[in-house]
Write a structure and sequence with these properties.
Protein name: DUF3325 domain-containing protein
Structural class: mainly alpha
Low-confidence stretches: none
Order of helices and strands: HHHH
Number of helices: 4
Keywords: Membrane, Transmembrane, Transmembrane helix
Organism: Acinetobacter stercoris
Mean pLDDT: 87
């Protein structure tokens, strides 16, 4: 159950990130109605974590998940561009 709470938190934070206008992970941002969906996922996640873990541990895990997700997600497009750059660099060198 703890893992379910953690996965719901990840899904909620990712959905909330994708509704922002400055996100660069997908071509178009998600509509604002998905913020409600993200909020429901985060609320369910928090409830599961509080039930299955001590309160302070649940709060800490919930907040640290947000920090890690929102720190890592913006860099995913950079990694994708770097990978494409490496592929073209290797194909040019193999000729």
């Amino acid at each position: 159950m703890k893992i379910l709470g953690f996965i719901l938190a990840i899904a909620g934070y990712l959905t909330l990130y994708l509704t922002h206008s400055n996100q660069a992970l997908i071509q178009m941002r998600l509509e604002n109605k998905y913020r409600w969906f993200a909020g429901i996922l985060l609320l369910l996640s928090f409830i599961i974590l509080v039930i299955k873990l001590p309160a302070l541990v649940a709060i800490y895990m919930f907040i640290i998940t947000a920090i890690v997700m929102w720190s890592f997600i913006p860099f995913i497009p950079l990694f994708q561009r770097l990978k494409q750059h490496e592929i073209t660099k290797v194909s040019k060198n193999s000729r």
